[in-house]
């Protein structure tokens, strides 16, 4: 069993923020910012690309629910919502999960930086829309 399946099964403790039949949300052990939360399906899927669309939709409804609660009750000014997918994108636990990272100010210990590159947009468009 993977580490998040162990937490879902109750074999390893987790600080539960939200739970229902399908979804569990726990505080991330590393707390990038105060209230950093992981929302996951109870069923093991390696990443969100493998999830049936309806299950992913319900997961994201719960992400919004938990993010609203966290931002309001922790008095954050916003949040980052992030899914790392596969090792290349920084996924280290191979049980899909959504990070909710409450943001308090610009000096929070997280950097999400988009650097600009020059690509041919029409070429990308043709490729991305092929069957
Ligand atoms: P990833 O890098 O896969 O997107 O994120 C995995 C996250 O899981 C990391 O932020 C890490 O701190 C967290 N994590 C790893 N092991 C545990 C654990 O046993 N309990 C909790 N609550 N979080 C964990
Ligand atoms: Zn798992």
Notes on the protein architecture:
- It contains 3 helices and 5 strands.
- It is of the alpha+beta class and 131 residues long.
- It is globular and about 50 Å long.
- It has one domain (3-129): HIT family, subunit A (2-Layer Sandwich).
- Bound molecules: guanosine-5'-monophosphate and zinc ion (ZN).
Short description:
This protein has 131 residues and is an alpha+beta fold. The protein has helices spanning 3-9, 53-73, 121-128; strands at residues 16-19, 23-27, 37-41, 78-82, 98-103. It has a five-stranded antiparallel beta sheet, covered by helices on one side.
Q: What are its keywords?
A:
alpha+beta, HIT family, subunit A, 5-stranded antiparallel β-sheet, 3 helices, binds guanosine-5'-monophosphate
Largest beta sheet, briefly? 5 strands, antiparallel
CATH architecture call: 2-Layer Sandwich
* Chain oligomer state: single chain
DSSP helix fraction: 25-40%
Q: At the fourth CATH level, what is the homologous superfamily?
A: HIT-like
What ligands does this structure carry? Answer: guanosine-5'-monophosphate, zinc ion
Q: What distance lies between the first and last C-alpha atoms, to the nearest angstrom?
A: 35 Å
CATH fold call: HIT family, subunit A
The percentage of residues in β strands lies in 15-25%
Q: How many structural domains can be distinguished in the coordinates?
A: 1
N-to-C series of helices and strands: HEEEHEEH
What class, by secondary structure content?
Answer: alpha+beta
CATH domain class name: Alpha Beta
Strand order of the largest sheet: 1-2-3-5-4
The pLDDT mean sits at 97
- Specify the overall morphology: globular
Please report the number of helical segments.
3
